[in-house]
Design goal:
Blueprint: E1 3-7, H1 13-19, E2 23-27, H2 33-41, E3 51-55, H3 60-63, H4 65-74, E4 78-82, H5 90-94, E5 99-101, H6 107-117, H7 124-133, H8 138-148, H9 157-163, H10 168-181, H11 184-195, H12 201-222, H13 227-234, H14 238-248, H15 253-272
Parallel strand pairs: 1-4, 1-5, 2-3, 3-4
Helix pairs in contact: 6-8, 7-9, 10-11, 10-12, 12-15
Length: about 270
């Protein structure tokens, strides 16, 4: 049975290309069966490849499964399908004889290798913050490291906070932290920014509600389990774990219960307003 490695994160591509220097790339991006067939015919099956990369952002691999099944049976090496999460589940229906797995990339190990190879001077805590701020996206982290390295001085936590890009996801976590700290200025600033981007009031409220509930669970687990068990159970990144640990010591269970009740009441108001 042939193995296909399905990758939802396009940012891993540059890393994989380094791992497989002799690769061949097939791009599926035009909704036209004739052009898809031309792409398939262009593959050089006699070339000594170590991997094939199939870029299928629009789900054409699923749409033209009959035409492309033959291609996949001819490929003897590893096949990486780069696609989006909205279409990848179709492959299981259209290619029942293919094993589809999602690789578990150790982004921290990859980034640490890159830092070592390029002699980048970055503090450990600063790297944890950078990984967290950029959702552990390999390409984003690599680009930020390259940018920050242009200035010949160590990359510190302060530099990450002041000079580095931050994803929307990281901003939502920051909002939760500022709510717990009752920092009204930052709450207004970040919530306004999030509501003007991709969040509705309800979706943002639900996110905050879940994260505050997670803080409460974190405090309750501290009574019975060690840090490593809690970190593994809640699937927390290094930076997020340290941040929750720090803030959990500054808020009481009573405060968290009150906040959860308040958020729940706000959710009801929004639903029926």
């Amino acid at each position: 049975m042939k193995k296909i490695i399905q990758v939802n994160d396009f940012s891993c591509m540059s890393f994989l290309k380094n791992q497989y220097p002799h690769y061949q790339q097939l791009m599926l991006f035009k909704d036209n069966i004739k052009e898809v067939n031309q792409e398939v015919v262009s593959i050089d099956f006699f070339d000594n490849q170590t991997a094939y990369f199939i870029l299928d952002q629009d789900g054409l691999l699923a749409k033209y499964s009959e035409q492309i099944k033959q291609l996949l049976t001819l490929l003897n090496e590893e096949v990486f399908i780069f696609t989006t999460s909205s279409v990848h589940n179709k492959y299981e229906e259209d290619y029942p004889n293919l094993e589809i797995i999602e690789p578990n990339f150790d982004i921290k190990a990859i980034i640490n290798s890159y830092i070592k190879a390029n002699q980048i001077n970055i503090e450990k805590d600063a790297l944890e913050l950078l990984l967290f701020n950029l959702d552990e996206n390999y390409l984003l982290v690599k680009n930020e490291l390259d940018k920050l390295s242009l200035i010949d001085k160590p990359i510190t936590m302060l530099r990450i906070e002041n000079e580095s890009y931050k994803t929307t996801t990281a901003n939502t976590y920051s909002l939760v932290d500022y709510i717990l700290l009752e920092n009204k200025e930052q709450i207004k600033l970040i919530s306004t920014d999030l509501l003007e981007s991709e969040f509705s009031e309800m979706s943002l409220l639900i996110f905050v509600y879940r994260q505050v509930s997670l803080y409460l669970l974190f405090k309750l687990l501290l009574k019975h389990y060690n840090y490593n068990t809690i970190k593994t159970t809640l699937k927390l990144s290094d930076y997020r774990f340290k941040q929750m640990q720090r803030l959990a010591n500054q808020v009481s269970e009573y405060q968290l219960y009150r906040l959860i009740k308040k958020l729940h009441n706000e959710e009801i108001k929004l639903k029926y307003s």
